[in-house]
Design goal:
Elements: E1 17-18, E2 25-29, E3 35-42, E4 45-52, E5 55-62, E6 65-67, E7 77-91, E8 101-114, E9 120-128, E10 131-138, E11 146-152, E12 155-157, E13 163-166, E14 179-182, H1 186-189, H2 201-204, E15 208-210, E16 214-217, E17 223-229, E18 237-242, E19 247-252, E20 261-264, E21 267-268, E22 271-277, H3 280-285, H4 288-291, E23 307-312, H5 352-364, E24 369-372, H6 402-411, E25 415-421, H7 426-442, E26 447-451, H8 466-481, E27 485-489, E28 504-507, H9 525-528, H10 565-574, E29 579-581, H11 586-591, H12 593-601, E30 606-615, E31 619-626, E32 631-638, E33 643-648, E34 657-664, E35 677-684, E36 689-694, E37 699-706, E38 718-720
Parallel strand pairs: 23-24, 23-29, 24-25, 25-26, 26-27, 27-28, 36-38
Antiparallel strand pairs: 1-7, 2-3, 3-4, 4-5, 6-11, 7-8, 8-9, 9-10, 10-21, 10-22, 11-20, 12-19, 13-14, 13-16, 15-18, 16-17, 17-22, 18-19, 30-31, 31-32, 32-37, 33-36, 34-35, 34-37
Helix pairs in contact: 5-6, 7-8
Bound molecules: 1-deoxynojirimycin (NOJ) and calcium ion.
Length: about 725
């Protein structure tokens, strides 16, 4: 059996150095010597600090815990000892931006003891060339068994007024637009008007709380990203901001009873991560969060595969009158109501006929899957009511013929992608999970999109509290047993767990394309997401809107996407996911066959990736090499100001390449000329440079195909595309 994440043990050196005596302070360097981490104790309180090329990143920042009902790790601590280790190894992801990942760090494991209680707390620090990860470890010990974390005291003392790319703290959702603001201006800039939302309890007490991943840019030339890795059996971490001291501290998401983490020693916390560089592109290329996750837990991964899909989906959002529900009867109940006896609403989207049209389109154009939403009983009364037993996951509406569609899709080499909207009734979903997954296996489905819209049941929980964190992982693990791939929407933001569970292919967990029909995403949204949301794992952003003005579907619809058509193509590169949707309607793709060709050609799994240029909030340009051919793809997404690139093609192999460039036309603009694009075919080599422009809210996408036989190429040239 193929074992993924085969750890090739090129562990160059494992040097263990046990400090034989207690010290007040211990420190290590990153393998390249650029980062320094020190750990010390002052007045009984443990602190750590971090610098990069001698520039302070974090000044002494507190470590520790307050525990409920008992003495926490707050005071009287001292360093009992420390152990240093070095690891240098490679692992091989099942899918991803890179076929091979280096995991190289120096580790410092510090044991603290507490005077009086005799309790022990371990902190494991791993210092990579691109940042720091550390986690707490509670060993088995006579005085600590089952305990409740009242608050984690971890601090991130930034010490200067960084520019933040951030969203407000919330216990339930990350579907916000980003705010770009200095720490000192956050109080004015962060949209606190939404304080009424139930998840804003912290803010309503006057605290300023942000979500992670938090992207920061400093006047000291540093880019810093704070997040977490391997969020397992613990609440998500948000950051409480002291906007005077420029400091952040952990603020764990509670349940509705105000309880945070229930733990039992021996146990660990997730890793707290601080990715650092003086180049923004290094943040995007960082694998630190994945490296801190456990290796793949699935022995046979041969059934996990990248997926490009279309689906009965966008038509629910554009205002053309399609509905998920079969009828309008709010009293219709899954498994109780005989749906064949109630009148259909005439607007049901997931009909056998419509799904067949999508299957035909998918098979004609080389897509692997067709997502079908609205196929199952329960949509009549689903969103936001916290009612129990809303959906059935193995009962189809009468006009959706499961068996026939399975046959029809299989004959055409396409798979239907299952949809489980749970309406956040996670308790009911767990009850139905075995049956739901068995139904999928019986009917030829190997991928499921899950959804958690609305308030959570159990009603004590939030989307990011410990119980729900455990739920999402439980679903991914159960799915792995049945060889099912998972794409979860509205789940807690990811923390690299897809390394361990690579069948958990993608998540939404941020504001995706659906919002283009609900007020729109700002033009710079996709220049921030890779620096934030994508740090923890792939996003099912569902790109590919060609018809960006929704008035096309009805005069009164004033919704529109803040993007050019060419930029939609670029998102297949800049928004990495091994499961990528082409979300627009087949009818729209047929109107632009030449641009659609790019979506057909682009890959979703890569040998190698190179971030060529990037500035959070402004632009991102990435080149990616196909796994199966001598082909490279480049994508660039720009904010409302547009961007002009001069890209050196030195990532290409030897010989000539044919480049097909999909760029904004010179007069393209996301507001009033979004569909103006040009397509150019060029012959180029690694010695050349391309001058190419992204319009305001625009972008470009390029496919490079290596030409055979290899011929010597001429001297380098600069090729102007639309400049
Ligand atoms: C929200 C999801 O993000 C969207 O993709 C889905 O269509 C709806 N919920 C309904 O499940
Ligand atoms: Ca959503």
């Amino acid at each position: 059996m193929k074992v993924i994440s085969r750890i090739i043990l090129t562990i160059a050196a494992i040097c263990i150095n046990i400090a034989a005596f207690a010290a007040d302070s211990v420190s290590i360097l990153s393998p390249d010597g650029n980062l320094t981490l020190s750990v010390n104790v002052k007045d009984g309180v443990p602190y750590y600090d971090l610098s990069y090329k001698n520039i302070p990143v974090l000044s002494p920042s507190r470590l520790g815990f307050r525990l409920k009902y008992e003495r926490g790790y707050v005071d009287s601590m001292c360093i009992q000892g420390s152990v240093e280790t070095t690891v240098d190894e490679y692992w091989y992801p099942v899918w991803g931006e890179y076929a091979k990942v280096r995991n190289n760090y120096n580790e410092l494991f510090v044991t603290f003891t507490q005077e009086g209680s005799g309790r022990i707390l371990g902190v494991r620090f791993r210092l990579f060339n691109d940042g720091l990860g550390f986690r707490y470890e509670f060993p088995e010990q006579p005085t600590l068994h089952i305990f409740q974390v009242e608050e984690e005291l971890t601090q991130f003392n930034l010490g200067s007024d960084y520019l933040c790319f951030c969203m407000p703290g919330d216990y339930d959702t990350n579907e916000f637009t980003y705010t770009t603001s200095r720490i000192s201006d956050l109080r004015e800039q962060i949209p606190l008007q939404s304080l009424a939302h139930k998840g804003y309890e912290a803010q309503s007490k006057g605290d300023l709380v942000l979500q992670t991943p938090l992207m920061l840019e400093g006047d000291n030339g540093l880019y810093v990203n704070i997040h977490e890795a391997a969020l397992v059996d613990y609440p998500a971490m948000e950051l409480s901001v002291d906007d005077k001291a420029f400091s952040m501290s952990a603020c764990l998401v509670p349940n509705r009873n105000g309880e945070k983490a229930f733990k039992m020693a021996p146990c660990t916390t997730p890793w707290r991560t601080v990715v650092v560089s003086d180049k923004a592109t290094d943040i995007l290329a960082s694998r630190l969060i994945y490296n801190l996750n456990e290796p793949c837990a699935i022995e046979d991964t041969s059934w996990i595969h990248p997926v490009k899909y279309v689906g009965v989906w966008w038509e629910y959002f554009v205002g053309c009158g399609k509905s998920w529900a079969y009828s309008w009867y709010r009293s219709a109940r899954p498994g109780v109501t005989d749906y064949t006896k109630i009148e259909p609403n005439g607007q049901h989207g997931a009909t056998t006929q419509r799904v067949k049209e999508y299957i035909d389109f998918a098979s004609e154009n080389g897509f692997d899957g067709v997502l079908v939403e609205g196929w199952n009983e329960g949509w009549e009364d689903w969103s936001g009511y916290s009612r129990d037993r809303i959906f059935s996951f193995d009962r189809a509406y009468p006009d959706f013929d499961v068996k026939e569609l399975h046959r029809y899709a299989a004959e055409r080499g396409v798979k239907i992608i299952m949809h489980h909207e749970t309406a956040s009734n996670a308790a009911d979903y767990e009850r139905q999970l075995d049956d739901a997954f068995d139904f999928m296996v019986e009917n030829g489905y190997d991928a499921v999109k899950t959804g958690y819209v609305g308030p959570v049941v159990p009603r004590s929980e939030y989307h990011a509290s410990q119980w729900m964190v455990n739920h999402y992982l439980y679903v991914a693990q159960k799915a792995a047993e049945k060889h099912i791939m998972v794409n979860s929407h509205e789940a807690v933001r990811p923390t690299g767990l897809c390394r361990t569970w690579p069948n958990w292919m993608a998540q939404e967990s941020a504001r995706g394309t659906e919002f283009e029909s609900m007020g729109g995403n700002p033009a710079d949204h996709t220049t921030i997401l890779p620096f934030t949301r994508l740090m923890g794992g792939p996003m099912d952003y569902t790109p590919g809107i060609f018809q960006t003005r929704l008035s096309y579907y009805g005069q009164k619809n004033d919704q529109w996407a803040r993007t050019t058509l060419a930029r939609q193509l670029a998102l297949y590169l800049t928004m990495y996911s091994p499961i990528q949707m082409a979300c627009d309607l087949p009818e729209n793709y047929r109107r632009f066959p030449d641009a659609f060709q790019f979506i057909k050609d682009v890959r979703v799994d890569w040998e190698d990736s190179r971030y060529l240029e990037a500035e959070p909030g402004d632009y991102i340009t990435v080149a990616r090499k196909a796994k199966d051919a001598d082909e490279w793809f480049v994508g660039c997404t720009a904010d409302e100001n547009g961007h002009q690139s001069s890209i050196k093609l030195d990532f290409l192999g030897p010989g000539a390449y044919q480049a097909t460039v999909y760029a904004d036309a010179p007069d393209a603009h996301f507001k009033d000329n979004p569909q103006a694009y040009i397509i150019r075919t060029l012959t180029v080599s690694a010695k050349d440079e391309l001058c190419i422009k992204a319009a305001p809210g625009g972008g470009y996408a390029i496919r490079f195909v290596g030409q055979e036989p290899l011929k010597k190429v001429k001297r380098g040239k600069t090729v102007k595309v639309n400049c």
